[in-house]
Amino acid sequence: MRKFSLxxxxxxxxxxxxxxxxxxxxxxxxQAKNISDTTRVNILNDIADIFEERAVDSCVFYGKKGxxxxxxxxxxxxxxxxxxxxxxxxNGKGEYRLALTNxxxxxxxYEKLNDKRAMSNLMNSMxxxxxxxxxxxxALDAYTKSYEIASLDSNKYMMGISSIGLGNMHxxxxxxxxxxDYFLRAKTIFQNAPNALYxxxxxxxxxxxxxxxxxQFDEAFINFKKAVEQLQTLNNxxxxxxxxxxxxxxxxxxxxxxxSLEYFEKSFTIFTExxxxxxxxxxxxxxxxxxxxxxxFEKALEYYTKYTGFKNSIFNTENNKQLLxxxxxxxxxxxxxxxxxxxxxxxxxxFQRNALIVGxxxxxxxxxxxxxxxxxxxxxxxxxxxxNSDLELKNAIIEQKNVxxxxxxxxxxxxxxxxLPSRERFxxxxxxxxxxxxxxxxxSGDFYWMETVLNTIGEKLVLFAAADCTGxxxxxALVSVICRDALNRAVKELGITDPGKVLxxxxxxxxxxFGQNETWNIHKNEVQDGMDISLCVLxxxxxxxxxxxxxxxxxLLKKDAQVIIHIKGNKQPVGLNSNPLPFTTHVLDVNKNDKxxxxxxxxxxxxxxxxxxxxxxxxxxxxxxxxDKNSMGAMAENLNRKFESWRGQLEQVDDVLxxxxxx
Length: 663
Known about the structure:
Largest sheet: 6 strands, antiparallel
Number of strands: 13
Shape: elongated
């Protein structure tokens, strides 16, 4: 019986076929970024099919990857195809428990899709697996079901595949004429079907085998030759090996032991390359028998030992038991599922009946309550009218207060704008410059500052700064007034022009101002009012630039350079600090047409873009370098447009201030 089952095992993947695309090309397609998940699943399954035909372990790897992805996107057709490929691989290896498990899962998947073509194919594959373990009753049942499903779908192709299985069953029971009838029926179908060269080749092999049983050897070898030619065209090594074994059986029956041994050994070589251990077991026994008939008992014993080794390594009673358990679990699970469906229907009917009863009771109660509520509502309406009048009055008062508060804040903005240096004055002292100033609320905790003085030898100094005070809105604006006043006192009243010493004095004045308040003194360890600042002092006679910073940096972009020089300030604020240190004055090497940028953290901290992330200093740096050839006016317009585009519909998170100067 084993030689007959060998001929149908090779049809496990006949429905889906084998991709003609090289594996490398398919792997390249997998790397494409613009393909859908379902396309990716199909490619993985095509690779698995190629490796299945070659009997390479990678079939299982790619099949499982395709199955995992198909499950994640609920692509049932992809799942079914993956199960079929993996099952066919295991069937070819003689690992029937794993093969049947995958075939059953594939069948259940296609049941959900009502894909009768695929269901017929998977049922046929289960028949092949049962033939592999000599369970002819299960095999006959599977082939019959496969044929019936194909008939319902008018699927000639699968009717041909199932006919091959049914023909083998008749051949197994020595009903040779009926078997030949099934094989010839299959051949006729495949001769007229596109892309059916593989099952046509198998049909020729089986027809030849039937003629051997009828002792019509000339007809047998004609069909065997056609089968091998077809299989060689397809490069189907497994089918070639299977056919060689049947040819070896024919020559043995004819009495030509040398030719018989020649074909058995060809078959053995191919099965060894494919690691088809179950087939190696059977052909080893065939070769052992030939050597025994040739009285070469040493070789006969050698191959019988190989037969025993293959038999013990891949198949035993426990395996067969596990295989039947798989089928039993499937059938039991299916029946349990049907019972659960019936239970759910009964529960649903009972629920609907109970819901109807409850609904009637609720309607009656509602009618009673409606009348009661109507009388209560009439009384409540009078009280509600009075409440509404009170609410309208309160809302009007709140709205008026909001208007007054908003007007007050807008007036505060006028005051804050008045104490800021005018743009005209700023651009007069620093002609090639820009200021981007965007308060988060009506008033701002950020402010820009500028003052001009003469040094001891009569050289003009322009002091300018970008400052960020604690908080934003009204609290930040109040702190900014104090900090701005401290800067003016340090420079104009006290005559300090060294930027580091200016910040030292400003810190002293801020602490002194806030220290006059008892509440602030109590909470001074919790609240650290003050500012972060970047302060520049430009000597217009020598173009020397001195700078000092508190937490904020200064960026220097040299003429025609592609890299911005970042100079960090001291890591401490200008204000109350537990461990105050003197601020450092930096003397910067600058020349005409160099550019200076000072700013607060509002731009870098703004959320936006496609993923709602922070703008960050890195992006600001790249933007300034990329737009370096633009005028400072164009730079300001582009930067403002970039910021607003990044922010999009999101709320501005902080005050924004950026100052750029071209020397």
